[in-house]
Amino acid sequence: xxxxxxxxxxxxxxxxxxxxxxxxxxxxxxxxxxxxxxxxxxxxxxxxxxxxxxxxxxxxxxxxxxxxxxxxxxxxxxxxxxxxxxx
Length: 87
Prior knowledge:
This is DUF7703 domain-containing protein. Helices cover about 65% and strands about 0% of the residues. By secondary structure, the chain is mainly alpha-helical. It has one domain (about 15-85). Helix 2 runs antiparallel to helix 3 (about 50-75).
C-alpha cells in the first residue's frame, strides 16, 4: 500500500499532506488544553469562583471541539464502534 492510499482507505476526504497538517494542529490544541489546565490550577488559589470555572470550561471546550472535528474528518460512527461490528 502506497502512502497516497492511506487517506482513501481510512475514509478521509483530505489528502495525506492535509491530514498531517490538521492532525498536527489538533495535537497542538490538545497540548495547549493540558498546559492551560495546569496553569489554571497553579495560579488560582480560590477555585470556587465563577471566573475559574468558566476558564476551565472554555479550556476543555477546545479539546471537545478538536476531538469532534477530528472524528468528523475521519467519518467516525459513534453509534457502533468499528471493532465491535456484529453480523
